[in-house]
Amino acid sequence: MILETDYKWFMLINKIVSSYPLIDNFMIFFAEYVQYAFVLLLIMLWWRNKKTDRIIVFQALVAFSLSYSINRLIEQFLYRERPFITHDIVQLVEHAANSSFPSDHASAAISIAVTLMLVTFRYRYIWCFFAILITFSRVWVGVHYPFDVIAGALNGILIALITHFLLIRKKPIDVLLRRPIFNCKI
Q1: If you write DSSP's letter for every residue of 52-109 in order, what string do you get?
Q2: How far is CA 153 from CA 47, 105, 148, 159, in A?
Q3: What is the pLDDT of residues 164-174, one digit of tens each?
Q4: Max CA distance (Å), the chain
Q5: Residue 46 and residue 136: Cα distance in Å, rounded?
Q6: Which of 22, 42, 119, 165 has the fewest other C-beta atoms within 10 Å?
Q7: How far apart are CA 145 and CA 102, in angstroms?
């Protein structure tokens, strides 16, 4: 029942793909390239050489790493073929024929964006908007079903919350964050 509904949602979206070339190009851009903006943001925050920024980067990298690792674990038990393997669809980007569930792009973008929300980063709403567009664009370009990106996003949200409220506050992490690498000269 869930997979049938998921397929119907996917086809509802996929049937309008290629009808609007401008939207298609926009979605391809978000599906393939905007993820690197998150990497550049974290690099720029680290180089700003402020302790709070470096802690944000550390927290975002922990959340990303944990959510990605959980995706790898889930894929060991739940394999789902990608839409372009099992159905005749419009596919806008090339992708390996590996497991579709859950979406790594959704987990990564959402875990970093939620981390930015939790630490009250100045441009957090823009980054959350980018993360949502990355997530949706993966369905639009034909490489994920909606349930794949929803599961990836939920994983990203949950791990960002656990990282922020539980892991970062633990004594070993607190001791690590007092190390010289986080204490910058300003």
Answers
A1: HHHHHHHHHHHHHHHHHHHHHHHHHH-----HHHHS-----S---SS--SS-HHHHHH
A2: 28, 9, 9, 10
A3: 998 777 666 66
A4: 57
A5: 29
A6: 22
A7: 9
